[in-house]
Amino acid sequence: MLARFLIMKQYLEIGKINNTHALRGELKLEMWCDGIDYLKQLERVYLDSKGEQELTLVSVRPQKNIAIIKLAEITTVEEAEKLKGRVLYCNRDDAQIDDGAYYIADLIGCYVVDADTDEEYGRITDVMNYGSCDIYDVENDGKHVLIPAIPDVIAEINTEYQVVKIKPMKGLFDEN
Q: I need a surface site. Which of 47, 59, 65, 74 has the fewest CB within 10 A?
């Protein structure tokens, strides 16, 4: 197998501003990251995927399944209104994730191969979570197979080389 290298995105999507909150410029953020604790690590967020439009994150608090955030540069509800619908980004260097955890952006595009035979099954096109574990959507020639990201199946993840080695469960790739 040829070595492949992933150019990792430096700025990652953390959520979408879906509304304002109160009158002092607070915002409601639909979180696309792991949650409040991840956001609380951040001092800066960005309005673009290149890190050119920096904003200072002053506070973060939960409200049901969203986050209420306060940005230093946004002080009125009118200013906050202008950000509705915008995606916020973070610099991957500004936050830490647990050992053995991976950013979804780094998994998308990885090749899925058999840990024993190196047979290639396709590429990860999406990562979903329905509660008990992540599910990798692997596409090959227009066909999609959902692979549970559990220790019995995932043998190795190497995002640097864009490879996820698996021990396929019986029936996972059978045509019949």
A: 65
Rounded Cα distance, 139 and 126, in Å: 9
Give the C-alpha separation, 154 to 75, whole Å.
47
Sequential DSSP letters for 10-46: SEEEEEEEEEEETTTTEEEEEE-SS-HHHHHT-SEEE
18: left (phi over 0), alpha (psi -120 to 50) or beta: alpha
Write the CB contacts of 98 (distance below 8 Å, at least 6 apart in sequence): none
User: 137-166, pLDDT tens digit by residue?
Assistant: 999 999 999 999 999 999 999 998 999 999
Cα–Cα distances (Å) from 19 to 10, 31, 74, in that order, read 26, 13, 13
pTM listed for this prediction? 0.82
Provide the 10 A C-beta neighbour count for residue 87.
16
